[in-house]
Amino acid sequence: MILQLNGISKRFGGLQAVSNCSFTVEKGKVVALIGPNGAGKTTIFNLITGALKPDSGSIYFKGKDITNVQEHKRVHLGMARSFQDVRALTEMTVLENVILACPSRYAESPLLSLVRPNQVRKEESHNIKKVFEILEYVGLSDKKDKLAGDLSYAEQKLLILARLLATDAELLLLDEPASGLDPGSLRKFVELIRDLTNNNKTILIVEHNVSLVSEISDKMVFLHHGEALAEGKPDEVAKNEELRDIYFGA
Amino acid sequence: MEILWQLFIQGVVLSMVYLLIASGFSVIYGTTGHFHISHAGVFTLAGYVLYLLMESMGLPIWISLILAIVISAILGALIYLTLYRAVLSRNGTHLVLFIASLGLLTVIDNGIVAIFSPDPQTFTTSVEFNKVLMILGAPVTVIQLGMIIIGIVALLLLYVFMNRTKAGRMIKAASVNPDLSQIVGISLKKIHVICYAIGSALVAIPGFYFALDTGANSGKGVELVILAVMAVIMGGIRSLVGAWIASLFIGMFYNMSILWIPPHWQTSIIFFLFLIMIMVRPTGLFGQRA
Amino acid sequence: MELLIGFAILACIYIILASSLNILIGYTGIFSMAQAAVFGVGAYAAALLETKLTWGFIPSLIGAIVIAGVISAIMAFPSLGVSGDYFIVASFGLQMLIHTLFMNLDGLTNGPAGVQRIPRPEFFGYQLNSDIEYLILTILLTAIVLWFLVGISKTGFGRVLRAIKEDETVVQSLGKSAKRSKITVTVLSGCVAAVAGSIYANYVTYISPASFTIHESIFIAQLIILGGLGSWRGATIGTIILLGLPEVLKFLPISETYAAPLRQVFFGLLIIGFMILRPQGIFGTNMAKKIKIKDSNITAELGEGEKA
Questions:
Q1: In chain B, whose CA is at the least distance from the CA of C271?
Q2: Domain spanning A3-86+169-247: CATH 3.30.300.20
Q3: Using the 8-state DSSP alphabet, how is residue C207 labeled?
Q4: Is the minimum CB–CB distance between C150 and chain B shorter than 8 Å?
Q5: DSSP character at residue A151
Q6: Minimal CA–CA distance to A204: which of A174, A170, A177?
Q7: SS3 state at A30
Q8: Residue A121 to chain C, least CA–CA distance (Å)
Q9: Scanning A22, A76, B57, C158, which has the fewest C-beta atoms within 10 Å of its C-beta?
Q10: Model confidence over B260-283: pLDDT tens digits?
């Protein structure tokens, strides 16, 4: 088990966005968060990554209580997220977008880059090599010097995935990674996800496309009004009449 | 006790200055979202317009005041219609507009100095208006009293206009949801023109007061406007009443605190308090947290 | 010739100031309107170390850099939580707060009268009395500062800054502390501005609060905006052009009383013209696009406040 949520709650003013939510994510699996709009899926992402602090409850990551760990430090522990609205850095090149995500000790410190120029060079060339491999893996290597803003939508989504891989995170939180993709890109995407779990990555995914998540996920967590109503194998959850009614608003 | 009363009266005068500048800025910013720093330029221009009308053309003060208010309102509307629209229509953003507005302020402030010299232009006719009246033992000049009365009337009119008239409600609707207003057929351009005119008319009143009191002068506007903008932020953006309370606080603090704090430290303390506030509660004292 | 040397020294001072803002506004998108205040802190620190403690030029320069760095770090805090228009107002507030401190801390700054009789630098018993010697020192320092800043901007740190300008949330989500980088760059910018302050104090040998007003802050910001945000050519060549152009007015038969404000009018008109026709400035490339992204932050910020 890599991630565990214990009774997490979060309130915004009069709205109880997440209430007493608990579920677990097992290492090397693809877990999908599903539920109708406003069920609190993105809020849960924000709570897991530390962009928001829960009102109550605790979060364990790799056996460690991270409830009070700062957002950027959680990335160092090994988790990284994508955003629903893509958010590529459009004024920077593809290469820069990805190298930015690499952990850095020397190159990004103005002081160290002055006193340890050799270390900096070593780190940068190591990172560039790594970025090349990642870009090769997602299939963007011929676009590396393009501005991210000039990429197509589907390419930007691949770029975001590359960026997440560059963080070295074991747990990837993907917020609607497949939305807006054409069937061709979608196939490629599914293959990438499958391949990632074989490479020791764990994936928590928010996705609206139920047939897609049924296909790729090992487990589904069904959220409603910020509560984890059910969790289990995709076909079990998908077959549950009650949940279907909630989901399709019957 | 008497000194307390005197400081209170002077506090009321200064509060009215900030109230009017802040209300003017708030009407414009709240609706258009433009950081109209040239508000300070309109403040300065208003004083010189009054000077020209009274001293060069020899018009009586009441006619001059009315004309000068109308001219200031037109100037404000023109700044929007010419400069700001030119910037925005070329896909300029609000930040670009702010920089252009800074440029315009530089032009206004220095253009006036080039034409009128850096010295204050004193009103020869203002002697009689500097006459001091006593209100329960506190000295108040006729100009100060006049500004307070005109200011109160203007703010009441503003409140009634915003809350009781159709145009006012349209402005409110446009400030909350510009897209929606466009859909229901309210012309945003028209609303923005009205806001610039109203805001500029409001800032003209303290402009007249400063000109009549110490002579029309250039370059005084920025700091006053920045303080007023702070009042707007402290009060919570788009909360007119919040801006009023914060303006009152600033004006009163400047004068009343003289009792405990050496006089030249007031400005430092106001800025310090503002910075503390923006750290603790960035949405303002009366704005709701998100 | 003397005029030219004087112009060159001032140009160097403004090149440093414009560069210090370039890394802040141009790279990171921190729209600070308080640079004259930091410039002033550097000038006062150097002047006071030299006159009150009789330190030499170099130790005072280093002292000024350290002091301005510390004060910049303190200044960074109140404004970190806010963005967009609020940040601009907060930095205006800081500018005015520090200006009032120059005026009010009589015992230290000597109030409105300012600090006088600041000595020209002396090296191994040799004093740089002529302006041409001082110019050489100034050019040397300017070159070091530029080398440093341009170098920094090309490192991974510069990359993080540009990313912050585009999207702070993303930077944070990739495991970088945007807050720390913002404080660091504010401190760096302050240290650089202090170098300009020190050169200025030793050049004019007399400083007063009047040189470090809000108008000066606006002027410095306008220099780099016109030169081109994010462009080092803008910060250098742009600054020289912009300072040089209005000097032409000197050759017209206008008295200085009118020439000074007219230069400013000219400058203001230039700003307006550029903002309408070419908002990215002389050497900037795609600032308009970049700023647009920032703009959505401003709108978001407003959206939060509007529920009052």
A1: B103
A2: no
A3: B
A4: no
A5: S
A6: A174
A7: strand
A8: 10
A9: B57
A10: 888 788 888 988 988 888 888 777
Q: CB C271 to CB B267 under 8 A?
A: no
- Report the alpha-carbon distance of residue C127 to residue C137 in Å, rounded: 12
Of C156, C174, C181, the CB nearest to A107: C156
Encoding tokens for residue B108?
């206004």
Q: Which of B113, B223, B242 sits opposite C96 (nearest CB)?
A: B223
The Cα–Cα gap between A40 and A32 comes to 13
Q: Distance between CA B145 and CA C270 in Å, rounded? A: 42
**Tens-place pLDDT, residues C122-156:** 888 888 888 899 999 999 999 999 999 999 998 89
Domain locations in chain B as residue ranges = 19-218
Structure tokens at C214: 């809000």
Query: Could you tell me where in chain A the CATH 3.40.50.300 domains are found?
Result: 3-86+169-247
Q: Distance, in angstroms, between C302 CA and closest chain B CA? A: 8
Query: Which residues of chain B lie closer than 8 angstroms to C37, CB-CB?
Result: none
- Closest residue to C174, CB basis, from A75, A90, A109: A75
User: What is the domain partition of chain C in residue ranges?
Assistant: 2-305
> Closest Cα to residue B213, out of B31, B63, B10, B72?
B10
Q: Indicate the helix (H) or strand (E) that contains C236.
A: none
Contact C162 A71 (CB under 8 A): no
pLDDT at C301 over 80: no
Residue in chain B closest to C77 (alpha carbons) equals B279
Q: Is the ipTM of this complex over 0.95?
A: no
pTM given for the model: 0.89
Pick the CATH number of C2-305 from 2.60.40, 1.10.287, 3.40.50, 1.10.3470: 1.10.3470
Q: A206 — phi, psi (to 5°)?
A: -105, 125
For residues C43 and C39, give the distance between their C-alpha atoms in angstroms, rounded to a whole number: 6
Q: Fill in the DSSP letter of residue C208.
A: -
